[in-house]
Amino acid sequence: MSQTKALKVRATLFCILVGIVLAMVAVVTDHWAVLSPEVKHHNATCEAAHFGLWRICTKRIVMTDSTDKTCGPITLPGEKNCSYFRHFSPGKTSEIFEVTTQKEYSISAAAIAVFSLGFIIMGTTCALLSFRKKRDYLLRPASMFYAFAGLCIFVSVEVTRQSVKRMIDSEHTVWIEYYYSWSFACACSAFVLLFLCGLALLLLSLPRMPQNPWESCMDAEPEH
């Protein structure tokens, strides 16, 4: 591998590393979406919620602004209560999650996120072996694993988005407004970096194609 191509590969891997960090942050945190009910009375106590792939947290907030009809923002002080979803941990769980969304959504989103982390681990293993053993061809499976990880994160994001939409549209919920929070932004950024940089790494790791009619693939620089 030429020095110029090696520099491009390292820059691409650095962007992939940033994507891996963002993916890990998104998976382990619980600020994917924030849900807010309607506030009908001044100085009323309302209960806003934020959740991720593994648990949901509610916060009781006293609203003092009579012009604001929604509960929040979630950063206001209040009594906070967090619980993990029942399908991962038996025992007490949030009634809000059980009533307002189907378990299939969260199970799917969390399972796909776990697959994404598995692809990341396999891709990182191949990338480390390619540098340690001087085997550049291992960058190709690594790039594919990273691209697959990005796709899995995208699917997890879409499943979560559909889950939130179903909760807002349901007549059995108190939620009237929502917005996606910083964990959701981390997941979207991780998808872009892992998928695009994975494809870029694949193109960089391919052998040089013939540039003239009289050249053949055998004329490309040998791989180690």
Automatic annotation (TrEMBL):
Segments forming a coiled coil: none
GO aspect biological process, one term: regulation of calcium ion transmembrane transport via high voltage-gated calcium channel
Location comes to: Cell membrane, Sarcolemma; Membrane
One term under GO cellular component = L-type voltage-gated calcium channel complex
Q: What Gene Ontology molecular-function terms does this entry list?
A: calcium channel regulator activity; voltage-gated calcium channel activity
Q: Which UniProt keywords apply?
A: Calcium, Calcium channel, Calcium transport, Cell membrane, Disulfide bond, Glycoprotein, Ion channel, Ion transport, Membrane, Transmembrane, Transmembrane helix, Transport, Voltage-gated channel
Where is the major localization of this protein?
membrane
**Which parts of the chain span the membrane according to its record?**
12-34, 107-131, 143-159, 179-204
Instruction: Please indicate if the UniProt record lists Chaperone as a keyword.
Output: no
Q: Which InterPro entries would you find in this protein's record?
A: PMP22/EMP/MP20/Claudin (IPR004031), VDCC_g1su (IPR005421), VDCC_gsu (IPR008368)
State the membrane topology: Multi-pass membrane protein
User: One Pfam family for this entry, by name?
Assistant: Claudin_2
| Subunit note | Component of a calcium channel complex consisting of a pore-forming alpha subunit (CACNA1S) and the ancillary subunits CACNB1 or CACNB2, CACNG1 and CACNA2D1. The channel complex contains alpha, beta, gamma and delta subunits in a 1:1:1:1 ratio, i.e. it contains either CACNB1 or CACNB2.
Q: Which family does it belong to?
A: Belongs to the PMP-22/EMP/MP20 family. CACNG subfamily.
What is the annotated role of this protein in its UniProt record?
A: Regulatory subunit of the voltage-gated calcium channel that gives rise to L-type calcium currents in skeletal muscle. Regulates channel inactivation kinetics.
Protein name per its UniProtKB record: Voltage-dependent calcium channel gamma-1 subunit
Record gene name: LOC111158207
